[in-house]
Write a structure and sequence with these properties.
One of its GO terms (biological process) is DNA replication, synthesis of primer. GO terms for molecular function: 3'-5' DNA helicase activity; ATP binding; ATP hydrolysis activity; DNA binding; zinc ion binding. InterPro entries: DEAD/DEAH_box_helicase_dom (IPR011545), Helicase_ATP-bd (IPR014001), Helicase_C-like (IPR001650), P-loop_NTPase (IPR027417), PriA (IPR005259), PriA_3primeBD (IPR041222), PriA_3primeBD_sf (IPR042115), PriA_C (IPR041236). With about 800 residues, the chain is an alpha/beta fold. It is about 30% helix and about 25% strand. It has seven domains: about 110 residues, GIY-YIG endonuclease, CATH 3.40.1440; about 60 residues, no CATH class; about 70 residues, no CATH class; about 180 residues, P-loop containing nucleotide triphosphate hydrolases (Rossmann fold, 3-Layer(aba) Sandwich), CATH 3.40.50.300; about 180 residues, Rossmann fold (3-Layer(aba) Sandwich); about 55 residues, no CATH class; about 90 residues, 2-Layer Sandwich (Alpha-Beta Plaits). Strands 14-15-13-16-17-12-18 form a seven-stranded parallel β-sheet, sandwiched between helices. A six-stranded parallel β-sheet has the order 19-29-28-20-27-26, with helices on both faces. Strands 2-1-4-3-5 form a five-stranded antiparallel β-sheet. Strand 14, helix 12 and strand 15 form a beta-alpha-beta unit. The longest helix has 18 residues. The protein starts with a strand and ends in a 6-residue tail after the last strand. The structure holds a DNA duplex (12 and 12 nucleotides).
DNA sequence: AGCACGCCGACT
DNA sequence: GTCGGCGTGCTC
């Protein structure tokens, strides 16, 4: 009998290896590497992934696989190997690596149930258990706990009257619809019609229908189209003329939408020059990484589309990654418009079932292109021809939970496996990518000008300290106010952008400035409008907003939204005639409201669009001629070495929203630190200069791209333990790594306490450290093995945020 | 992660 | 003497 190596669904150090199982003869054709299986593991049944089929095992008494969960493997050979790569590079468990590659719907659900043994009767049981097992009922373990009857159950289990069953269930069912199709040929149907009596009018009608359309039809549709009842169909089914069948259908989120088909647009000279090396590498089937550096509005998307066109014509597939927030209908339209049904879309707005169905389209090879957010990088294609990452610099490509992967790294790894190219596109490339392009590791392609040579908007930086000195205490500079007024008179549109740290709101006392903090974590609570509650994002603590400030008893305690509410109020005072649409977490909470608000703005139902980060992306409306950034520097002073880079990218991004069409655009940036180079250079839209300046800073402070980083976070309930243990780790790492490597710590984490656990960290900066992964693994092994110390150690290789 | 096995304190 | 606390170690 064949043997399968299985990775079991238990994310723990001790089980992070394969377990061997016998493959029952009846499943031997189906069970292959990549198939999910149900296996007995200890006393229970759980899910596992087959990684290998072999004929021998080092173990003697192998158990057998209970059953496969798939008819086709869900992971192909390449993805199984990619799992190994992920495990190695992010130091995660194998099972976590496989799970992250699949839609959540494929994660198993476990149920523990108590059933009466065959041959035993309800009356044999202890009397208190009688009500729970009447009429063959089963009892779930949760219910057993609730009713406090576990000891009684245990006793009867030992007596052999009850049995414990461990069930592994699918999370989502495939959606099925009833279809009807003819069993006979058209000619035979005609003969049947002739045989029928005059009374069988409806049946004749149905058969006539099938003579004309000899195809399966959804039962519901047939009934309503011919306005007949189910009994008519039923009698034809009984006569074996028709047959009813269940057919799998997809939950298609874009089902009732039509996409205007587009044709490839003629390319500008610059675009031609940029696309030609990409097409060349597609043709040759070479692995290369391109950095497509093109200012906003320079036509990057058309380059993506035409590259993909070539890939499809070659019979290959394409993955396009887009940041979640810019995965707007506008973006989807462009791809669906060009490639129609060959496109699958994966983003967080879809339900688990919809995501699963989109995934299945890819898995079955029914689509050739997937457009999606970060996790779409794992799309189960078998013949990838290109991977495109738009807005390559976006931080959302880094996953902040285990496995902490960066989609860019995964993309390059997958592309290497398929010998295909990666295109990284950005108007403000990450320093890492641009540095690699400079070093010729990546192939740099530039689109220096906007389409049709549209001028970049003129940007003016306003020093808000100056405004204050001259007596203007409002949040609008006089200049911005003037310009806004002007736009309203000219019936043009403006976008106001509030650059707030974080996307959330907090609760603050307006008298003493006291901010409501989580009692368990050193972080402010987030205000949720629903129920007027404050919640902690890290530990889940909840409480109502107090009526009075706990510090000074003032009643002026109120929530500070993203600040947009306040801006809207003030706008109402100074420009009462302006129609404003506000977009923030509060107004876009519900599904689809994001889209709706943008549509209203596009239709000219408002003069001003006011919002946070989320409006910085993808907005491309012809009538926007003014962009105002209310506070450019709120992000600048965060304790993060990337804060300058982020500020520059964001300001440049927002500025690009203005004047993308015929009307020229203007940008006003208000700031308290106009002399800071990231603000100043965003003003002149000078990426190259910014790059040089920032590279010098990174070099002196030994940050990426000059050094790689790894971050170890240690947490414990006692502050002292956390510090001490971090100290130990620091010492150990020092002893293992080279002298050129910088090891910082122990230092308190930027969030020093989460869920009553103190957090200390150690930051490693290194250039070349072949021993690093091994050293980090040793540390993890140590702490994952012993769970009693109460210490938790987590490691982020190449962290994005140092938290 | 679960779960069983096992070795010590407070109860019928 | 037994029930049950959770410490320890295993799951092919």
């Amino acid at each position: 009998m064949k043997i399968a190596s299985v990775i079991v669904d238990v994310p723990a150090k001790q089980t992070d290896k394969t377990f061997d199982y016998l493959i029952p003869e009846q499943w031997s054709d189906i069970i292959q590497p990549g198939t999910r299986v149900v296996i007995p593991f200890g006393p229970r049944n759980i899910q596992g992934f087959v990684t290998e089929i072999k004929s021998e095992s080092d173990f003697n008494n192998l158990k057998a696989i209970i059953e496969p969960m798939d008819l086709e493997p869900v992971l192909n050979h390449e993805l199984l190997n990619l799992g190994d790569w992920l495990t190695e590079h992010t130091l995660c468990f194998k099972i976590s690596a496989y799970q992250v590659m699949l839609p959540a719907a494929l994660k198993a659900k476990y149920e523990k149930k108590i059933k009466i043994s065959s041959g035993a009767a309800v009356n044999d049981l202890a009397p208190i258990l009688h009500p729970f097992f009447q009429k063959g009922r089963t009892l779930s373990w949760d219910e057993a706990l609730q009713f406090g009857i576990v000891p009684a159950l245990k006793k009867e289990t030992e007596n052999g009257l009850l049995e414990v069953h461990y069930e592994v269930k699918e999370r989502i069912k495939k959606k099925k619809l009833k279809f009807v199709r003819p069993l006979l040929s058209a000619a035979e149907l005609t003969a049947e019609i002739a045989k029928m009596t005059g009374r069988q009018v409806k049946q004749k009608e149905v058969l006539t229908y099938f003579v004309l359309y000899h195809e399966p039809v959804e039962l519901k549709k047939l009934l309503s189209d011919l306005s007949i009842s189910a009994s008519t169909v039923k009698s034809l089914v009984e006569k074996k003329i028709l047959i009813e069948e269940d057919m799998e259908v997809y939950r298609d989120p874009y089902l009732n939408r039509t996409f205007e088909r587009t044709k490839p647009l003629p390319l500008s000279e610059a675009q031609k020059a940029a696309i030609s090396p990409i097409l060349h590498s597609i043709e040759k089937g070479e692995h290369e990484v391109f950095l497509l550096y093109g200012v906003t509005g320079s036509g990057k998307t058309e380059i993506y589309l035409q590259s993909i066109q070539n890939v499809i014509e070659k019979g290959q597939e394409a993955i396009v990654l887009v940041p979640e927030i810019s995965l707007t209908p506008q973006m989807v339209n462009r791809f669906k418009g060009r490639f129609g049904d060959l496109v699958a879309v994966l983003h967080s707005g879809l339900s688990a079932g919809e995501k699963y169905d989109e995934w299945r389209k890819i898995h079955r090879g029914e689509v050739k292109v997937v457009v999606g957010a970060r996790s779409a990088i794992f799309a189960p294609f078998e013949n990838l021809g290109i991977i495109i990452i738009d807005e390559e610099h976006e931080t959302s490509y880094k996953q902040e939970e285990m496995p902490r992967y960066h989609a860019r790294d995964v993309a390059i790894e997958r592309a290497r496996n398929y010998n295909c190219s990666v295109v990284l596109g950005s108007a403000t490339p990450s320093l890492e990518s641009f540095a690699r392009a400079q070093k010729k590791v990546y192939h740099l392609l530039t689109l220096p000008t906007r389409m049709n040579n549209q001028a970049l908007p003129s940007v003016e930086i306003i020093d808000m300290r100056e405004e204050l000195r001259e007596g203007n205490r409002s949040m609008f500079s006089r200049k911005l106010f003037e310009k806004l007024k002007e736009r309203i008179e000219r019936q043009e549109q403006s976008v106001l952008f509030l650059n707030k740290r974080g996307h959330s709101s907090f609760v603050m006392c307006r008298d003493c400035g006291y901010v409501m903090n989580c009692p368990n974590c050193d972080i402010s609570l987030t205000y949720h409008r629903a129920g007027g509650q404050m919640k902690c994002h890290y530990c889940g603590y909840e409480s109502l907003v107090p009526k009075r400030c706990p510090e000074c008893s003032s009643e002026y305690i109120r929530y500070f939204g993203t600040g947009t509410q306040k801006v809207e109020d003030e706008l109402g005072k100074i420009l009462p005639e302006a129609r404003v649409i506000r977009m923030d977490v509060d107004t876009t909470g519900r599904k689809g409201s994001h889209e709706r608000l943008l549509k209203e703005f596009q239709e000219g139902k408002a003069d001003i669009l006011l919002g946070t980060q989320m409006i910085a992306k993808g907005l491309d409306f012809p009538n926007i001629t003014l962009v105002g950034v209310l506070s450019a520097d709120t992000m600048l002073h965060l304790p993060d070495f990337r804060s300058s880079e982020k500020t520059f990218q964001l300001l440049t991004q927002v500025s690009g929203r203005a004047g993308r069409h015929e009307l020229p655009g203007e940008v006003i940036i208000q700031t308290y630190s106009p002399e800071h180079y990231s603000v100043e250079l965003a003003g002149t839209q000078d990426y190259d200069l910014f790059y040089n300046r920032e590279m010098m800073v990174r070099k002196t402070h030994r940050y990426p791209p000059f050094y790689y980083l790894s971050l170890i976070t240690v947490s414990h309930e006692e502050l002292l333990k956390a510090v001490k243990e971090t100290e130990k780790i620091v010492a150990f790492i020092r002893s293992q790594l080279s002298n050129e490597t910088v090891i910082l710590g122990p230092s308190a984490s930027p969030i020093p306490r989460i869920n009553n656990r103190y957090r200390y960290q150690c930051l490693i900066k290194y250039k070349r450290e072949p021993n690093l992964i091994r050293t980090l693994k040793t540390i993890l092994d140590q702490y994952q093995k012993d769970t009693k110390s109460g210490l938790q150690v987590s490691i982020d290789v190449n962290p994005f945020i140092l938290m």
